[in-house]
Every structure is written in C-alpha cells, then in structure tokens.
Amino acid sequence: MQQLKETHTLEKELNRLKHEKAALQVQSRLLEKFVTLARSDAKERVLTAILQKTLEISSEITAAEKGSLFLLDSDGAVTDSLLTRSDATPEQSARIIGSVLNKGLAGWVRKHRKVGLILDTKDDDRWLDLPDQPYMVGSALAVPILWGDNLLGILTLLHVEPGHFTAETANLMLLTARQIGSALENTRLYTRLDESYRLLKLAKLKIENYSRALDAEMEKGKKIQRDFLPDQIPRIQGWEIAVCFHPARQVSGDFYDVFLLPGNLIGLVIADVCDKGVGSALFMALFRSLIRVFSGQISLQGVSVSGSDQSGLNSTENHHHLALHAVSLTNDYIAEEHGDEGMFATLFFGVLDLQSGKMTYVNGGHEPVIIVDHGGVKERLKATGPAVGMMPESKYTAKLVQIECGDILIGYTDGVTEALSPNKDFYTKRRFFSILERPVTTASKLIEQIKIDLYNHMDDAPQFDDITMLAVHRKPCSILSG
What we know:
Blueprint lengths: L1 H38 L6 H17 L3 E7 L5 E5 L7 H13 L2 H8 L3 E3 L20 E9 L2 E10 L7 H62 L10 E8 L7 E8 L3 E9 L4 H18 L19 H23 L7 E9 L4 E7 L4 E5 L2 E6 L17 E4 L5 E5 L1 H4 L11 H8 L6 H16 L8 E8 L2 H5 L1
Antiparallel strand pairs: 1-2, 1-5, 3-4, 4-5, 6-15, 7-8, 8-9, 9-10, 10-13, 11-12, 11-14, 14-15
Helix pairs in contact: 1-2, 1-5, 2-5, 5-6, 6-7
C-alpha cells in the first residue's frame, strides 16, 4: 500500500515537472521568436507575430484545432486580437469580440480570472454559438494570461470533439499561460519602446531640419546685419579709424557707424541695443537707419529732418545742430512708435570736424567714450542724456570737445568690461583702463592691445555679450606738416 502511494506521488511529481518543462519550452520558443523578429527589419510586426506564435504553440501542445487570443489593457478593453474566424471583416470581428467578451467563455474568464474548461459545448451555458459560425465546436478551453495582478489577455482553444480538453490539459495551459504572460509583457514593452524610439527619431529629424532652416535664416540675418555696418571705413588724411566687432551670437544688438557728412564733417556712432538676439538686431538696424536719416547723411524726398529753425547759424554750426538733433528725433520715434516693445539703446553720437578736431557729441546713456594721449586717459565723455528710445521728449545736451593732434578717441560697449573668464570673473573697467594708460601710437594698435588682453582673460569661456570698440586717432601734427 505504501509503495503504491509513493508511486502515485512520484507520478504526480513527474507530471508536474513535465508540465513545467513544457511551459518553459513555450516561453523559450516565444522568446526565441521575439529575439529573431527584434533583430530583423520587421519590427513593426513583432506583436502580431508573437500572438500568432502563441496560438501556434498552444494548439500544438493541446492538439487544439482552432483558437483565438485577445490582449487587454488595464481597463479590460481589447487592444489586439487573433480570431478563429480569420475571414471576418473588421466590423464582424468587432461584433464577435463584443459578443464573446459579454456572454461567452472568454467573458467568463475575464470576469473570474480562472481557467474556463467546457467538456461539451451543448451542456455548458458559458458557450455562445455565433450566427453563421462556419465550424462545429465540441469542447473549449479558455485560459487567463496573467502578469502579476494584471490580466494581459485571454487564450481560447477549440476542438470539434466533446471531451477533447481535460483537467490535466487545463493545468498544463495554466502553467504555460504564466510563461506566455512573461513573453507577451516583454513584447509589449519592447513594442512601446520601439515606437518611442521611432517617434523620437522622427522628432529628432524634424528638429534637425528646423535647426538647419533656422541656421540658414540666421545666416541671412547675419549677412543683412553686416550690410548695415560700414563695409569700408573712410580713409581721411590726418586721421585713422579702427574698429572691433565680435557678436556673441549670429546676430547682434551692438553696432558702430562711421559716415561722412557735408561740411568736412564725419559722424561717429557706437551703440548697444538692450536685450540680445533677433529682436535687438532688428532694432539695431532701425536705430542705425534713423540716425543716418535724421542727421542728413541720407536724404528722403519730402521728409524734413531738422525739426527746428537753423537760421542764424553758420554752416558748421548748422550741420552740428542738425546731426545731433537726430538723437532726439530717433528717441521720440522709437519711444512713440515702438514703446510697447520696451526697446532702447545706449548710444554715443559724435560729429567731428576733420579740419579743426572739434567734436560735438551726445551720449545717450552709453559707457563714457575716452580720449587718451601719450600720458594716458585725458578725458571721459560721460552721458549727456538718458538711453535712447525709453521716453518720448527726453532731453539731450550737446557738448563740445577738442581732439588734439596725437589724441585717440575710443568708445566701447559693456560686452568688453563685462566679459567673463572661465572662473566667471569680469574683465572689469579697471583692467580696461589699465590698457588705456599705456603709451600707444595708433588706434589700431590700441584696439589690438585691448583684444589680446581681453581674449587672454576670456580664454575658452563662452562669450555672453557682443564686443564692440571704435577708435579714432588724430595723427601728430608734425607728421602732417612734414
């Protein structure tokens, strides 16, 4: 008796091991199929192919004739399916799925999350005969595919003969369903990940295309802005003019200008429009154009730019008055027409008499323009009014300064003194002025000395602001007389 009991126990253990082996083999075959598909060019068909392979293997180990497989989301709705009725239209498939999940065996399994075994479909009210069903079903087995507490799907197997599926078959498929659940979960995760990669790749391509188009437009903007700067600095006997212009971005809010005016005069401008980027670059072009138009350097038919009575002034005084009045006119136009944008510029505008060296200037909130001679800093031309464009009818005072033979006038923007080192240290005005105290013989040499020291300070740190300098040197009178 004891021997029979032990034999029965061994048989049960052997059957359990056989079932577990069969279940693991199912998982191994599904994963092998998954890996093959994942490495192929058919990645978009991975889930469908795994569903088909699942049905194929399940039918093989149970000798089922037909079968169906539903995948469910967290709400129990069908996300993917393979039906026994492969010839059904999408509309018919939807009706079939709705019926079997509502009244059929698959619906019972979804509700109870248990194996559904029907030995004879004629005697079990869980079986639902569908209209126009093209095949006879004698027995059925439906198995929940679980992953943890989540119901991933329902596998239904069919056979024409009653009693084909047994309790032992049901236990085998229950074990197998756990392995199928693992394979399906991996497949679903992979499919989602692959779709994410695909969408990410598409987004990357769109961004790259947009970036290339934006770069092209910015290059156009850069060229247009460059065209607004003087393409050639006037060469004037007895004078030397040198500039430095290094935008922090493709377009700049800084600008300088040098242009001839009637009466042997020359206009000198250095300015810094607030903010950075495209907006400041557009306003830079507007400021530059307005200064030229209102100073009389450009004549517009039918437009009067004087804005005041010039009678009683000699020719030179008249040109000085007209040119410097351009600052007030520019301020009023920007403040009144574009006040909502809140754009303004610090701006130095000087009108230099090339014969006498006298310069009348307006400094609209800009960094002091410096006059240096052989002894260092000689004079600082500080602000004579607020930044240009902030408030309409702002008051600007024109001042007169004499540039002697050998003097150098140098203007700069705050991108010079506020340039950062890799350690985030400012270049500082003190360091800038220490360069100005050194003896120098030409405007170009002065700018070169500043640039060398400035870029040594910056090293490989990124440039955060535009760097602009304008220097004007009145050559020694002894050279001219000789």
